[in-house]
Amino acid sequence: MTTSFELNIPERAPLFSRTGWLTLCAVVIGVFLVTLLGTQWAAPGSTLHISDYALTLVGKMLCYAIVAMSLNLVWGYCGILSLGHGLYFALGGYAMGMYLVQAPVPGQESAGLPAFTFLLNWTQLPWYWAGTQTLAWVLILAALVPAIVAFIFGYFAFRSRIKGVYLSIMTQAVTYAAMLLFFRNETGFGGNNGFTDFKSIAGYSISTTETRTVLFLISFAVLVLVFVLVQWIMKSRFGKVITAIRDSESRVMFIGFNPLQYKLAIWTLSALLCGIAGALYAPLVGIINPGEMSPVNSIEMVIWVAVGGRGSLVGSILGVFTVNGAKTFFTAFMPEYWLYVLGGLFVVVTLFMPKGLIGLFSRRRKQPLTSGSNAAPASEAV
What's the CA angle centered on 205, arms 204 and 206, to 5 degrees? Predict the structure, then answer.
């Protein structure tokens, strides 16, 4: 008697449900319509008008949301806590700043050498500035340079089996060292002031409402693409292995996978996405300096993810807008209390909301209806 066994391989889960796709499309269309209505069609002074300040503020948060999702890749999904992602964000911003600081006023052929070169008595830019007058090359650099730096760091760190708090301290130390390096004038990146006073981008004046609207919409489009990309990665076999490494790296090794390759790949991808966010950030805000590499900024990025919810892309975005919205309010009306509020928020989330704000919404959806005696017990609620 022969017994046959049938292997049932589960189908890959869909990227989004039908409701999810409809919601995403509705959000995209809504944001584009509201932005165009508020900036191009509504008259200044009307209630529907969106000011340049508001456009820049929200656009900056969109860039931060990309950073939060990239950090969630390595921390929320892979279990690697990075306290130095501000380095990759700043490198992308500096790459774009190298182009913007050389871009002339529309109508002029050349802007000449950047202002900081006169303080150093330089008559020409160093070799590593070659090709930065071209926007396409700078966009490649903004993604490639952070990825290369992350790959080199990750290769030696992960190969040496460094993990936990020791790895987190190393990421912060590398970022702090890079900040000190960029503060030096002779490094050739503007020293303490960094890059500012941008005039144009791709031949268009960077200070006009039309250009700022386009930059805002591009940032939002990139945010949506990154959201879909990360969701696709985590639904794939690669994403399942990444999650397994977070839960038990030793078991992953036992069944034949090499965690080094997966951790290095996700770490490099996370840095690449941070660099893209930095490249979008620089023209929106109008400045990039070594302060973006400060350890405080990198720690604040971790707080975004923790407040929104680790392992949740929507939670990453929610955390960015919650924390930065509170920061805007407190720094405007009670600036001396902001750091206390930020620290207290992190403590409260860590102790009482381990799944972040998104966990509260999930818990509320699972709460049973309490209408009379027909309410289901909590243990049976779905």
Answer: 110
Contacts of residue 378, defined as CB under 8 A and 6 or more positions apart, other chains included, come to 367, 368
- DSSP assignment, residue 235? H
| Structural domain includes residue 375 | no
pLDDT digits (tens, 9 = 90+) for 333-382: 888 888 888 888 888 888 888 888 888 776 665 554 333 444 433 333 32
CA proximity to 91, closest of 25, 216, 205, 187: 187
Q: Is residue 219 part of a domain?
A: yes
The residue whose two tokens read 């405080």 is: 296
pLDDT digits (tens, 9 = 90+) for 181-228: 999 988 989 889 899 989 999 989 998 999 999 999 999 999 999 999
Per-residue model confidence as pLDDT tens digits over 22-35:
999 999 999 999 99
Residue 332 lies inside a defined structural domain of this protein: no
171 half-sphere exposure, CB direction, 13 A CA radius: 31
With residue 287 as reference, give the H or E element that holds it.
strand 287-288
**Backbone phi and psi for residue 153, each to the nearest 5 degrees, phi listed first:** -65, -45
- Indicate the number of domains in the chain: 1
Judging by beta carbons within 10 Å of its beta carbon (0-12, 13-18, 19+), is residue 305 exposed, middle or buried?
A: buried
Domain hosting residue 217, numbered range: 50-291
